[in-house]
Specification:
It is a single chain. By secondary structure, the chain is of the alpha+beta class. The protein folds into 3 domains: about 100 residues, Elongation Factor G (Translational Gtpase), domain 3 (Alpha-Beta Plaits); about 110 residues, Ribosomal Protein S5, domain 2 (2-Layer Sandwich), CATH 3.30.230.10; about 70 residues, 2-Layer Sandwich (Alpha-Beta Plaits). Helix content is about 25%, strand content about 30%. The strands form 3 sheets. Strands 1, 2, 3, 4, 5 and 15 form a 6-stranded antiparallel β-sheet that branches. Strands 6, 11, 12, 13 and 14 form a 5-stranded antiparallel β-sheet that branches. The longest helix is centred in the first third of the chain and has 17 residues.
């Protein structure tokens, strides 16, 4: 396969939903991987790259498993780079199941003194509603308005990490309702850190659950309709009622379609009229137990391939 033959299908999904961890075995291979990825990305920007622990891991993330496998195959066969590649994994999300109040306080007394302090309430929102920040402080004697957005920024940075695994928190409302400041020592960064701390403190006692992406497929309803229905049901999927115009709409967990998914299911995807992420649903408890300790995506940093500069002193 030539580099010119790498063809990746377009997709309207903006954020990655799957990833593969690559582990280079030498510094030279780490550098070569980034050079090769940049070359591929310039032609087909259909994936994203993250790093973790400097040169220890490189993470390729995207929407379609086939896309990621094409990139890995090109790295090995076209660029002759040796590395270990893990299995395809889902980028899950997390949300909360109860309401809780929390305090974030940051005081730095050495060097340049800083002070930031806030009280927040966190509560769940309906599925798919995302993040909402509500400010209920209107008195500058409590917290001046120039610090409010700093608190919000710290909160959003903290929820992007989630509780574990690097899977972000979603479908939550955070209300800022109290706090305090110091006329001399309060600074914007101190309030950002206070907002960050408030979420980390809340997570210690809050009830969390994992969410998984659900695919929506529109299929042609032909003579094999019963086979399609049986296949979808065996893959934890659902069939939408009221099929019309010779089409069937089905919903299936993304986890059922990657890795060792059946050939029949993967062939079904190839002939789908359309594929998209429909929504996120809570993952069954028995599956959550298996992902609760995964850390591959935790504290990863996004890489702008076109502008990324490799530090020569980075080592494995």
């Amino acid at each position: 396969m030539n580099r010119e033959e790498i063809v990746m299908s377009e997709n309207k999904i903006k954020e990655p939903v799957i990833f593969i961890v690559i582990e280079p075995n030498t510094k030279a291979n780490y550098i070569n991987i980034f050079k090769a990825l940049r070359s591929i990305y310039e032609k087909e920007p259909s994936f994203k790259i993250y790093t973790k622990d400097k040169t220890k891991y490189v993470i390729i993330a995207g929407v379609e498993e086939e896309t990621l496998q094409i990139v890995i195959e090109a790295l090995r066969k076209e660029f002759n780079i040796e590395f270990k590649a893990g299995d395809t994994q889902i980028i899950y999300k997390q949300t909360i199941k109860n309401t809780i109040k929390s305090e974030g306080r940051y005081i730095k007394q050495s060097g340049v003194e800083s002070y930031g302090h806030c009280f927040i309430e966190i509560e769940p929102k309906d599925r798919g509603k995302g993040y909402e920040f509500i400010n209920k402080i209107y008195d500058d004697e409590v917290i001046p308005k120039e610090f409010i957005e700093c608190i919000n920024s710290g909160i959003q940075e903290s929820i992007s990490l989630g509780m574990c695994c690097g899977y972000s928190l979603t479908d939550i409302k955070v209300t800022l309702y109290d706090g305090s400041y110091h006329k001399t020592y309060s600074r914007q960064m101190a309030f950002k850190i206070a907002g960050y701390i408030a979420i980390r403190e809340a997570i210690k006692d809050i009830e969390l659950t994992f969410l998984e992406p659900i695919l929506k497929l529109v299929l042609e309803s032909k003579d094999n309709k019963e086979d399609i229905i049986r296949l979808i049901h065996n893959s934890s999927g659902k069939i939408e009622d009221g099929a019309s115009n010779g089409e069937i709409t089905v919903y299936i967990p993304l986890r059922e379609t990657i890795g060792s998914a059946s050939v029949a299911l993967k062939n079904l995807f190839k002939h789908a009229l359309s594929i998209d992420i429909s929504h996120y649903e809570e993952i069954p408890y028995e599956i959550q137990k298996n992902i609760a300790n995964e850390e591959d995506f935790y504290r990863c940093e996004y890489v702008d391939l076109l502008n990324y500069k490799i530090e020569e002193d980075e080592t494995l």
